[in-house]
Amino acid sequence: MTEAEAIETLSILGANGATYFTLFTTFTFAYLTVAYFVGASLTRFQCIAVSAIYFFTASMMGASTMVYVDTFAALKARELTIMNESWIGNLVTWPTVVTIMLASMMLISLYFMYDVRRRANYSHDT
Known about the structure:
- This protein is an all-alpha fold.
- The protein contains three helices and no strands.
- Helices cover 82% and strands 0% of the residues.
- The termini are far apart.
C-alpha cells in the first residue's frame, strides 16, 4: 500500500472510530439523563429494561469503536507514513486506553442509575 493509501485508510478508520465513540457517548448521556430525571420513579422492570437497552446498545457501539481503534493502531504500526511522526499518536497505547475508558463509562453509568434509585428508596424509608 502506498503512503497516500495508508494515510487515507487511517483517516477513514479514525473517522469511523470517532463516529462510533460519538454514538456511544450519546447513548451514555441519554441514559444518564433518564437516570437523573426519572430514574427514581421508574418501576423495577422499567429500570431493568432501560438499563439492558443501554448496556447492549452501548456495548455494540463500544465494541465497534474498539475494532476501529485497534485496526487503526495495527495499520499504523504496519505501514510507515508521516502519521507515525505524530507524538500524540505514539504517546500511549490507544486501544487499551479506549477499552478502559468505554468500560469505565458504562460501569459508572449503570452505578449512577443504581445510586439514584437507592437514594430515592432510602429517602422514602426514613
